[in-house]
Each structure stands twice: as structure tokens, then as C-alpha cells.
Amino acid sequence: MTETSATVEKLAPIEDVGGVAQPLLQVNGLTKHFPVRGDFLSARKTVRAVDNVSFAVMKGETVGIVGESGCGKSTTARLLMHLMSRDAGEIIYDGMQVGRAFSLRELRRGMQMVFQDSYASLNPRLTIEESIAFGPKVHGMADGAARALARELLGKVGLRPENFANRYPHEISGGQRQRVNIARALALSPRLVILDEAVSALDKSVEAQVLNLLADLKGEFGLTYLFISHDLNVVRYISDRVLVMYLGEVVELGPVDEVWDSPAHPYTRALLAAMPSSDPDNRTQTPPISGDPPNPIDPPSGCRFHTRCPFAEPLCANATPKLFPLGKMGHQAACYMAIPGSGHSRAPAKEQEAI
Ligand SMILES: Nc1ncnc2c1ncn2[C@@H]1O[C@H](COP(=O)(O)OP(=O)(O)O)[C@@H](O)[C@H]1O
Ligand code: SF4
Ligand SMILES: [Mg+2]
User: Fold this and answer.
1) Lowest CB count within 10 Å: 179, 185, 192, 309, which one?
2) CATH code at position 62
3) Ligand 1 mutation pick, 47, 79, 298, max ligand atoms within 8 A of CB
């Protein structure tokens, strides 16, 4: 028998404080550097995994984060979840400073994460029902109510509770385990769900089903997503806006169609040009971008892309270009070619000041 939602107890979602105009998440100057040992002759080195990253996620939005492996996507996600400490920066949830006005305990309900490894969050000794019920119980729900909620959520993620509730994680497929992880996240009534390569390990057909499920759940539960993936086709399909990261920095951001149709940063253009077509008969085999692969250990000075950029000029190595608004719907890029009067030969002329 499947319980009806009317009889199933749920954790109350963290209340909306600021209304629709206030971002659900505001990140300012987020920074994480990892010290790494060089060889015995060289000095200590630093991985600038996330460097002065700022962005906002509006309520109900899906924001994608793209960029090559190692550019800092997962570190950003872990910092947001407070799974590791940051070196600098602010994380503001619905107008509240996390750690001050908003406790970490509240944050762990208001923000949930699904990882690429579908085993990562599941205790192999707990049944699927117990795994989903675990979080609500930690937050004070009685065992029976938490199990009823778990069974209801199994139905919501497309797994019949009578077939799945009493199974163990190793007894189900990767796609089914990711559905369980989604149910586990939803059990805490989060408003923001961070999906870090959550569909990347799945076969294409299973991936498409889980993406459709995520789209349905977003509407039903009023969720906001931060969707991290190296797969640009998937990010375009699911996101409203996108951030492009390169070696720990955001180099371009904006509405996904705007960025795809008129990419302003040469790195974004290179990523899009190298994108495998979703049509299997039209797959390109071009390597992503020429030049050395990115290494966030002691990254290049100035614009970090200058060592690979076909348009690099001497000024590019001197100072870091800031994100500059391109005039349309919040589209911004950090490239001297997009900044009027920057001194780059391809930059537009600076507009005359009004007299
Ligand atoms: N705990 C850690 N210690 C040292 N370096 C790390 C650690 N975690 C991540 N890194 C490094 O930080 C960089 C960014 O990693 P990550 O955020 O996982 O990138 P992405 O998710 O975009 O592939 C990589 O160079 C990675 O090797
Ligand atoms: S700032 Fe210079 S090096 Fe960087 S992307 Fe723009 S043109 Fe290329
Ligand atoms: Mg990652």
C-alpha cells in the first residue's frame, strides 16, 4: 500500500525570508587554496582550486557550472555545503550569513547535495528505506514517520516502495541508486539541491530519465538547482543560467542560451567548439583546446587563459581581467577583448563620456 501525501509527515522547509527578489544563494569572493608539497628542492606550491568566485542563484533557478576537470567545480560545491573550510569569502543563504544568522544545522537541511558516485552517500548496511529515513530522524522525526516519508519519496523518484524499500544499495543499479540519493536529499525538505556530476556516471538513456525526473521534481517541490557537469549538452538542457570556470575562476556567466549563442570568452568558445554533438552520427573528435592542459598549481599570471588563448596580447599576462557586463540579461565575461578601452587591440572603443 502506498501512503498518500496527506498522511505523511514532512520536515517543514526552511522558511522563505527575503521573497523572490532575494537570491537563495549569494556567494562573494569564495576562495580555497590547497598547499601541496613540491619536490624536495622546490618551494611549497599552492593549488588555487577556487579563487575569488562570486555569483548568485535566484529562487527557482537552475544554475549550471561548467569547465574542464580540475577547474574547481567540486571544490566550489563542497565549500557551499561547508564540507570543507574556505580561506575567504561569504556564503549567504536567503539573505542570512551562514554560521551567523543561519546555523550549519539549518544549512544542511536548506541545501542538499547529490554526488557523482552513487554509493558515496549510502551506508551499505542500511536498507534503502533506512537510508532515506536517516536524515529526517537526525532532525527529530519519529522512526515510523520517517520510514513512511522514505516510502513516499521512493514513489516520487520512480521506485516502487514495495520493490525497493527493503533492498540494499548493492542490490540495485547505478541509476536506481542515484534516484535513491535524490530521495535522500529531498527527505530533508531542502530548497537548494547541488548536483555535482550527479548523472555523469550513468548510461545516456538512464541519464536522460534521471534528468527528466529532476525537472519534474523541481516543479513539484519548488526546488532550486546548482547543476555541475563537464557535459555541456546536459547543462544546456537543464540550466537557466551558466557559469564557466577556468582554473578556479569564473570567466563567463549568463543565461545559458545567451552564452551558447554569443560566447564572449575565448575559453567558452573553445569549449563549445569542442563539444561533442548530441547526434551520435556527428561527433567531433577534436581535442578540447590546444596548449597545455590546465594546472591550477601556481596558475599563469593575469588572465589564466593567456597561455592557451589565440588572442593573447602582452596586457593579458599582466593583470586579471574582471567580469564585465555585456549588456544583455546579466551576461558577463572576464576578457580584455570584451572590456571597452582595455588596451587590447580587439576591444571596443571606450564610449565617450556624456558632456
Ligand atoms: N583536498 C585537496 N587537496 C589538494 N588539492 C585538491 C583537493 N581537492 C581538490 N584539489 C585540487 O583542486 C583542483 C580543483 O579540483 P575540483 O574542485 O575537484 O575540480 P573539478 O570538480 O572541476 O574537476 C584540482 O587541481 C584538484 O586536484
Ligand atoms: S584576456 Fe587576453 S588572454 Fe584572456 S581570454 Fe581575453 S584575449 Fe585571451
Ligand atoms: Mg568534480
Assistant:
1) 309
2) 3.40.50.300
3) 47
User: In terms of domains, do 268 and 311 share one?
Assistant: yes
pTM, full prediction? 0.93
pLDDT digits (tens, 9 = 90+) for 115-174: 999 998 899 999 999 999 999 999 999 999 999 999 999 999 999 999 999 999 999 999
**How far apart are the CA of 19 and the centre of ligand 2, in A?**
38
Pairing of strands 224-228, 62-66: parallel
339 lines ligand 1 (CB under 6 A): no
pLDDT of residue 100: 78
The alpha carbon of 110 and the centre of ligand 2 are apart by a number of angstroms equal to 38
Count of other CB atoms within 10 angstroms of residue 312: 18
Please enumerate in sequence order all residues whose Cβ is within 8 A of that of 307, keeping only pairs 6 or more positions apart, or say none.
Answer: 291, 292, 300
Does residue 141 lie within any of the structural domains? Answer: yes
Q: Does residue 267 share a domain with residue 218?
A: no
Residue 15 belongs to a domain: no
Cβ(311) – ligand 2 distance below 6 Å: yes
- Judgement on whether residues 199 and 260 belong to the same structural domain of the protein: no
Determine the structural domain holding residue 250 and report its residue range.
245-333
Cα of 334 from ligand 2 centre, angstroms: 8
- Is the CB of 266 inside a 6 Å radius of any atom of ligand 2? yes
